[in-house]
């Protein structure tokens, strides 16, 4: 009778523990998949007052949707790609609906393995990309390529076939276009060294725009040795770059023959800052952080610029929540559940071993 009572109470306690674990799992799912995104949005800065004289530009840097070569085999690779895609889609949708941008600019490295993908894989990656960022179609969209899209870094050479494939799926990687008062100049140093600035300037000389914005994947002020000549040729009001996955601002002083460049970290930016775009003796470059948690950076987000036709620019970063913190919480709960379901077995084995010896 005592044995039956023990079994009864054990099962009762076990059922209660199972219910507690289910509640913990449900609360964790709610927190990781809803609350953290909602809370992060609460601390985004309010948008400047909108008017017909403003353009709101959403800047998306280095999403690098994951490919198949560099990911683990099934099922881990499939799960990691699914989670990364889902995170990008969730964060982008919130940022887009919050900012209601006039223009969405993708600043290169759209895919992690675009430069080494087969045609079938590239088509799959493209469809995934367009599904993740499908809301962008409601705005004017600009694409530029990065080294992960068309090669050019380390062992992955850039060849015309890769560039042509990117342009077939997305847009030309080099040239200029106009949206309202804004001239958007797509810059690529490899093509600049090949073609010069003629393709960039040809479409702008007869335009009466008041704002010139250069968008480039790799930094001009930080790394380019010919920056003074570039600035003289293009005369940009501001430069927007990506590639380094970090939030930075560079200011180049044009009063000296050898341009002096000062840098400011913007990894703690939580409000709109004024970017000086009207000083004829300097030029500013804003580096946008990656929006993907798979890049390993502690902070990820989307750049947001509000431009005015009187040559003013306000800029901030709409930060995304940490995904790795959420994944660690999932791992901790899985470990707890594993220990719970195996505790009795391990305890009984320990008792039997003790009795035997």
TrEMBL record:
- Name of one Pfam family that matches: Metallophos
Keyword Nucleotide-binding carried by entry:
no
Which keywords describe this protein according to UniProt? Answer: Membrane, Transmembrane, Transmembrane helix
- Leader sequence range is none
Ranges of residues in domain Calcineurin-like phosphoesterase: 57-246
Tell me where it resides.
Membrane
Q: Does the keyword Transmembrane helix apply?
A: yes
One Gene Ontology molecular-function label: hydrolase activity
Mention one GO biological process in which this protein takes part, according to its record.
Answer: GPI anchor biosynthetic process
Main localisation: membrane
Q: Where is the chain membrane-spanning? A: 327-343
- For this UniProt entry, what's an example GO CC term? endoplasmic reticulum
Q: How does it sit in the membrane?
A: Multi-pass membrane protein
Q: What is this protein called?
A: Calcineurin-like phosphoesterase domain-containing protein
């Amino acid at each position: 009778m005592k044995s039956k009572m023990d079994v009864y109470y054990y099962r009762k306690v076990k059922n209660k523990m199972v219910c507690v674990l289910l509640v913990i799992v449900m609360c964790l799912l709610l927190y990781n998949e809803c609350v953290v995104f909602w809370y992060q949005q609460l601390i985004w800065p309010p948008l400047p007052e909108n008017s017909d004289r403003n353009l709101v530009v959403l800047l998306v840097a280095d999403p690098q949707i994951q490919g198949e070569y560099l990911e683990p085999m099934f099922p881990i690779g499939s799960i990691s790609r699914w989670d990364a895609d889902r995170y990008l889609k969730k964060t982008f949708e919130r940022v887009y609906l919050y900012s209601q941008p006039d223009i969405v600019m993708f600043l290169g490295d759209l895919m992690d393995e675009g430069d080494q993908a087969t045609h079938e894989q590239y088509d799959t990656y493209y469809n995934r990309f367009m599904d993740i960022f499908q809301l962008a179609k409601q705005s004017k969209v600009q694409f530029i390529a990065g080294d992960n899209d068309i090669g050019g870094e380390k062992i992955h050479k850039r060849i015309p076939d890769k560039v042509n494939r990117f342009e077939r799926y997305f847009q030309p990687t080099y040239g200029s276009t106009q949206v309202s008062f804004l001239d958007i100049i797509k810059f690529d140093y490899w093509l600049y060294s090949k073609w010069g600035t003629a393709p960039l300037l040809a479409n702008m000389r007869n335009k009466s725009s008041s704002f010139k914005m250069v968008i480039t994947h790799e930094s001009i002020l930080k790394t380019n040795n010919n920056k003074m000549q570039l600035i003289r040729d293009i005369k940009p009001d501001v430069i927007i770059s990506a590639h380094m996955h970090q939030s930075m601002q560079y200011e180049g002083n044009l009063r000296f023959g050898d341009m002096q460049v000062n840098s400011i970290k913007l990894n703690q930016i939580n409000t709109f800052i004024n970017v000086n775009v009207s000083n004829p003796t300097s030029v500013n470059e804003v580096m946008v952080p990656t929006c993907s948690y798979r890049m390993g950076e502690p902070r990820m987000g989307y750049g947001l610029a509000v431009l005015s036709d009187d040559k003013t620019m306000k800029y901030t970063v709409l930060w995304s929540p940490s995904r790795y913190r959420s994944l660690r919480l999932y791992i901790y709960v899985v470990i707890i559940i594993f220990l719970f379901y195996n505790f009795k077995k391990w305890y009984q084995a320990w008792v039997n071993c003790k009795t035997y010896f």
